[in-house]
Amino acid sequence: MHFTPTSASWLNLVERWFAELTQKKLKRGVHRSVQALERDIRAWLADWNEHPRPFVWTKTADEILDKVAAYCRRISDSGH
């Protein structure tokens, strides 16, 4: 059986990929022009495509379900 969390989808992975780009390239870079920014992004993309690194779920189904259960317990007493 393969467990995929209900809140996770391919879109979550796309968002994670953009977070990786932002963290590794955009926040650390100094870009004095749009062309320089585009050049850096294209270079990062080329490197990513040459050496792809898949995103892997690191938690077990039990760990995820325990966290969801704890969250449900926490919000059930919130008074809302």
Question: How many distinct beta strands?
Answer: 0
Number of helices: 3
Counting helices, strands and paired strands, the structural category is mainly alpha
In sequence order, what are the helices and strands, one letter per element? HHH
Shape, principal axes of CA atoms: elongated
Which consecutive residue ranges, at least 5 long each, have pLDDT under 50? none
- State the distance separating the first and last CA atoms: 36 Å
Mean pLDDT: 82
Helicity range of the residues?
55-70%
β content, as a range?
under 5%
**Largest sheet, described in full?**
none
Radius of gyration: 19 Å
How does this model look, in words?
The mean pLDDT is 82. 62% of the residues lie in helices and 0% in strands. It is built from three helices and no strands. It is mainly alpha-helical and 80 residues long.
Question: What's the layout of helices and strands?
Answer:
Layout: H1 10-26, H2 34-50, H3 61-76
Task: Please provide a brief summary of the model.
The chain is an all-alpha fold. The protein is built from 3 helices and no strands.
